[in-house]
């Protein structure tokens, strides 16, 4: 399975991609306030690139539970200058983490080359149109307004199929669609664990899959540790996801993850 992001093409049958997180927000659950200036964001981007990131994910609004929404104008003011500056010094594709079409479009104009939408193109009716018009890939994450499931995995698949249909109808190419099971979103602890154990049902849908477990609450529940001390739990869930067939992993701690992923790929992909 080969996929292009920006100017780079990846053979996902041989390599798991590492997406490094840069939140230019004052209130993200793990690193809020750390990279709110352009200079700090650039420095972090250079650090993550040196540590082995394949792609950088820039977010201008926290998505932690109970987060305060911000306007598209405020979000653009946070992410666009950072993306422009990072593009000047780091030769990696940049992902824009947003569910707002205006923000996505401004970010793409600034240099982003993939959209990471936590609402799977369902929140903003223009989002899929932006992806289609600009020709960039889009990551469709599983999400819903209420955590009520008749049967978790079939319901997740049905929700993701709705997102896929929206994207295809807007003109997004099939090869530009990625999926994300939305671990940590509208799911109880038990549901997150079930979704992890059955990730192969999501990867079997035929699209490349991004897994984002980094420092999330379900890891804290198991380890009884605060967010900043959950990197070992993140590594465990990430490695497990690779055995289930995911193609990209989204993490805060890139250095250890990149090394672990290289070893996992040698075990799992190079048969």
From TrEMBL:
Domain of life assignment: Bacteria
Catalytic activity: (7,8-dihydropterin-6-yl)methyl diphosphate + 4-aminobenzoate = 7,8-dihydropteroate + diphosphate
Listed cofactors: Mg(2+)
Residue ranges of coiled coil: none
TM ranges: none
Functional summary from the UniProt entry: Catalyzes the condensation of para-aminobenzoate (pABA) with 6-hydroxymethyl-7,8-dihydropterin diphosphate (DHPt-PP) to form 7,8-dihydropteroate (H2Pte), the immediate precursor of folate derivatives.
Keywords: Folate biosynthesis, Magnesium, Metal-binding, Transferase
Protein's UniProt keywords contain Metal-binding: yes
Protein known as: Dihydropteroate synthase
Pfam families referenced in this protein's UniProt entry, alphabetically: Pterin_bind
Pathway terms, separated by semicolons: Cofactor biosynthesis; tetrahydrofolate biosynthesis; 7,8-dihydrofolate from 2-amino-4-hydroxy-6-hydroxymethyl-7,8-dihydropteridine diphosphate and 4-aminobenzoate: step 1/2
SUPFAM superfamilies per record: Dihydropteroate synthetase-like
Cellular component, GO annotation: cytosol
NCBIfam families: DHPS
Gene Ontology molecular function, alphabetical: dihydropteroate synthase activity; metal ion binding
Ranges of residues in domain Pterin-binding: 16-262
Gene Ontology biological process: folic acid biosynthetic process; tetrahydrofolate biosynthetic process
Family listed: Belongs to the DHPS family.
EC number: 2.5.1.15
């Amino acid at each position: 399975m080969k996929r292009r992001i920006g100017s780079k093409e990846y053979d996902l049958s041989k390599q798991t991609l590492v997406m490094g997180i840069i939140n230019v927000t004052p209130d993200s659950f793990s690193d809020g306030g750390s990279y709110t200036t352009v200079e700090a964001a650039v420095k972090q981007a250079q650090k993550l690139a040196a540590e082995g990131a394949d792609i950088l994910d820039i977010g201008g609004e926290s998505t932690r539970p109970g987060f305060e929404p911000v306007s598209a104008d405020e979000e653009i003011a946070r992410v666009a200058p950072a993306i422009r500056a990072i593009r000047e010094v780091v030769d990696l594709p940049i992902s824009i983490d947003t569910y707002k079409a205006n923000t996505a479009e401004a970010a793409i104009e600034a240099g982003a080359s993939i959209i990471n939408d936590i609402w799977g193109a369902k929140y903003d009716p223009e989002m899929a149109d932006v992806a289609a018009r600009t020709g960039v890939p889009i990551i469709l994450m599983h999400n819903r307004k209420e955590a009520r499931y008749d049967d978790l995995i079939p319901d997740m698949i049905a929700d993701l199929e709705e997102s896929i249909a929206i994207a295809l109808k807007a003109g997004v190419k099939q090869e530009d669609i990625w999926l994300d099971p939305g671990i940590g979103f509208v799911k109880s602890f038990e549901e997150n664990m079930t979704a992890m154990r059955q990730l192969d049902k999501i990867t079997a849908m035929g699209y490349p899959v991004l897994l984002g477990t980094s420092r999330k609450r379900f890891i804290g529940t198991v380890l009884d540790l605060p967010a900043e001390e959950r990197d070992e739990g993140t590594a465990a869930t990430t490695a497990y996801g690779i055995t289930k067939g995911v193609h990209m992993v989204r993490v805060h701690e890139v250095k250890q993850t990149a090394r672990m992923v290289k070893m996992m790929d040698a075990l799992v992909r190079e048969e």
